[in-house]
Amino acid sequence: MGVMRIGHINVRVLDMDAAVHHYENVLGLLRADQDEDGNIYLRGWDEWDKYSVILTPSDRAGMVHIAYKVESDADLDTLRQRIADYGVEVDELEPGALRDCGRSLRFHLPSGHLMYLYAEKTFVGKAVASTNPDPWPDGLKGAGVHWLDHALLMCELDPEKGVNKVAEATRFMEEVLDFKLTEQVLAGPDGDVQVATWLARSSTPHDIAFVGGPRMGLHHFAFFLDEWSDVLKSADVMAKNTVKIDVGPTRHGITRGATIYFFDPSGNRNETFCGLGYLAQPDMPVITWTEDQIGRGIFYHTGELNEAFTTVYTDGV
Ligand SMILES: [Fe+2]
């Protein structure tokens, strides 16, 4: 089957104590582990593998790498060959190179972002039972997010120079990793420049997204909530903790998600959102947004795109 879903994201943080407070008490992630280098590992209560977020102490914010889980160990051999045949350098790493994971593949997307693929990660189970479970566990903190859902990566885009890393990364994800393009924004004088894309391997509207900007980077990574009232509550939790909110509760036209954007104490943008949007079946037609409606696509109610949303983001390497 190949890639199943997002596995984890590794981000750098400036102040680990502040970051841990944010991810544990505001988002409600559960502490999974800590290693000898000071990295902290966390997961959502509805996840069954050991971790989905790695916080790395650093003097600058941004993403170290993003990892996706494939269905079987043999998929790694198939995908290693396909990645290499595409002309992308790929390394195979020993089990444990990614903590608590089996062997992994490491390579850079055409956009420059570092990606890993792995098939195995230590299983710990959800915070609710696998047999006759409760709908949610007791003792959840903050927003009580369910799981890490997706990430949006910024890609260098300069049509005048003929640079479009959005299109390059998208083509790689489609042709090599078999992602399905669910939505795209087409811009330019002829309406044929792919400036933003949303792609899925699962049946959700996106497992990864790419948006064009002046430099590559990390735009946000997002956590799933059940419903609109949970998104409102997550905004309340942010206010109680004086979290810097980027965009208050609203709805995306693209993916239909009801959402709130905010920043962790290091400046990495997070999102909590609810609603699975729609089922991205393999034969669903691609949804295209035109340049004149991009504001409505991003923020459906106002139809206005605040400039900071596409210009403020952290590093991608
Ligand atoms: Fe998102």
Task: Quickly describe the structure.
This protein is α+β, with helices and mostly antiparallel strands and 317 residues long.
What does this 3D model show about the protein?
It is a single chain. This protein has 317 residues and is of the alpha+beta class. The relative contact order is 0.16. The strands form two sheets. Strands 9, 10, 11, 12, 13, 14, 15, 16, 17, 18 and 19 form an eleven-stranded mixed β-sheet that branches. The protein has an eight-stranded mixed β-sheet with strand order 2-3-4-1-5-8-7-6, with helices on one face. The protein has two domains: 3-118, Roll (2,3-Dihydroxybiphenyl 1,2-Dioxygenase, domain 1); 148-315, Roll (2,3-Dihydroxybiphenyl 1,2-Dioxygenase, domain 1), CATH 3.10.180. The mean pLDDT is 96. 18% of the residues lie in helices and 37% in strands. It contains six helices and 19 strands. It is globular, with a radius of gyration of 19 Å. Residues 150, 152, 220, 222, 271 line the site of fe (ii) ion.
Topology:
Elements: E1 3-13, H1 16-26, E2 30-34, E3 40-43, E4 53-57, E5 62-70, H2 73-85, E6 90-93, E7 104-108, E8 114-118, E9 148-158, E10 163-164, H3 165-175, E11 180-187, E12 193-200, E13 208-213, E14 217-225, H4 228-240, E15 245-251, E16 258-263, E17 269-274, E18 287-290, H5 294-298, H6 307-311, E19 314-315
Parallel strand pairs: 1-4, 5-8, 9-13, 11-18, 14-17
Antiparallel strand pairs: 1-5, 2-3, 3-4, 6-7, 7-8, 9-10, 9-14, 11-12, 12-13, 14-19, 15-16, 16-17
